[in-house]
Amino acid sequence: MTAARITEVDVIDIRFPTSRELDGSDAMNPDPDYSAAYVILRTDAGDGLEGHAFAFTIGRGNDVQAAAIAALRDHVVGLSAEAVCADPGSLSRALVGDSQLRWLGPEKGVMHMAIGAVVNAVWDLAAKRAGRPVWKLLTDSEPEWLADQVDYRYIEDALTREEAVALLRKGKDGSAGRELRLLANGYPAYTTSPGWLGYSDDKVVRLAERAVADGFTQIKLKVGADLADDVRRMRAARAAVGPDVRIAVDANQRWNVAEAVEWTNALAEYAPYWIEEPTSPDDILGHATVRRGVAPVKVATGEHVHNRVVFKQLLQAEAIDVLQIDAARVGGVNENLAILLLAAKYGVPVCPHAGGVGLCELVRHLSMFDYVALTGTTEDRLIEYVDHLHEHFKDPVAIVNGHYVAPTAPGFSSEMHATSIEAYRHPGGAFWVADAAGLTEPREGTNR
Fold first, then answer.
1. Span of the secretion signal (predicted)?
2. Residue 335 has pLDDT above 50, yes or no
3. Which of 53, 251, 266, 413 is deepest in the core (most CB within 10 A)?
């Protein structure tokens, strides 16, 4: 095991035809085909263990994302598997620090998402070698080691290593009891499954009622295409779920700042809990203006925030009430650790973005670590849940009474079934070959 090396970095373009039933549709993304630029790290250890991860996209451009991951191959092949798994931060810093590839960011966009996929694959391999799920690997780790996994460049004005260690040491207090409660009760979830913009009013109402019956205390609706439609859908959803269930709304970056304030306030009669991505994810001061203009409705963002530096500024500017990490947007687990620590210092709750392909599977590990060994609370914290494509994963999410069940299988829950990979590999997988020949039927919807 000690001599094992990483021998291969396989990259696969995987796409699912979700646009055909408008699953995932919103005001800015009317036709998403949920996709994964999928990476597999293989070693010569002889133990059969591999590291699996992916960058999530929505169809066209997934080939570009896959090419970006492939560009990192020479940085990874030949590395000691033991050394990389013992210190994923070392690989993270090396990949981020490549001066020529860095020019394509820096630390943002396609190249940074590629780094995140490779780093997450290392965490999957490390957790499998340790025989633990990633959330458990993180919670069991020493505060000093976890703090050293974070890159403090550009964020030391908001979070130092010493502060990170102090937060993590404090998070250890009572962690054993919280771990038992997590295993017994799970982690709170909310669902976006009723809320896709392309759904009819009847479908929204039916799925909203089902969500409440399934134990969810919050749902989310997509908004931003037409105000009259949004008012009507909010009215119908509120009537369906009653006054005590939260309804979040998500504009997916559709609006200018003034428009975001006006539109959100037009929905205020139906008590939206938060407005998500009201404007450009890069507009920190714009978010601060929206937050002042729509209170007491909360402002949430994060799924398209490039890196820890922008999150730092959103917190410093008091521009958001809810921070939304994404497991596959930034530079992997290491950078998400930095963001979780920043949120903990500033006292802002984290409600991760999920859905897509495998995002629910991944991000539950980060929130569960945050609860057990960092903030110690689930108050006003929920993980997004969407009923999409879980059947393709070996360790799929399970929801019981509106809560994520804590995974127990070793790894990051990111490994897909080989049959799914072969069927939906683009363009040569069995589904896409049959589709090109006109032999496929409309996709079976997951939100029937």
1. none
2. yes
3. 53
Catalytic position from the list 222, 388, 390, 403? 222
Task: Give the pLDDT confidence of 107-121 residue by residue, as tens digits.
Answer: 999 999 999 999 999
Residue with tokens 């994520």: 404
User: Is there a catalytic annotation at residue 203?
Assistant: no
As a residue count, the chain comes to 448
- Catalytic: which of 112, 128, 353, 426? 353
322-323 and 51-57 beta bridge pairing = unpaired
What is the reported pTM? Answer: 0.96
How far apart are the C-alpha atoms of 247 and 253, rounded to whole Å?
18
CB 179 within 8 A of CB 372: yes
Note the pLDDT of residue 266: 98
In angstroms, the CA 112 to CA 447 distance is 32
Please report the DSSP string for 152-181 in residue order: -TTTTTT--HHHHHHHHHHHHTTHHHHHHH
Catalytic annotation present for 222: yes
Residue with tokens 């290593």: 161
In terms of Cα–Cα distance, which of 380, 417, 383 is closest to 399? 383
Residue-range domain boundaries for the chain: 171-404
CA distance 387 to 404: 12
Give the torsion sign (CA, 253, 257, 259, 262). positive
Tell me the Cα Rg of the chain: 21
**CATH number assigned to the domain with residue range 171-404, chosen from the 4 options 3.20.20.120, 3.30.565.10, 3.40.50.1100, 3.20.130.10:** 3.20.20.120
> Which residues partner with 41 through β-bridges?
9, 51
Give pLDDT tens digits for 137-155.
999 999 999 999 999 999 9
Tell me, what DSSP letter sits at residue 277? Answer: S
Helix (H) or strand (E) holding 190: strand 187-191
Mean per-residue pLDDT over the chain, rounded: 95
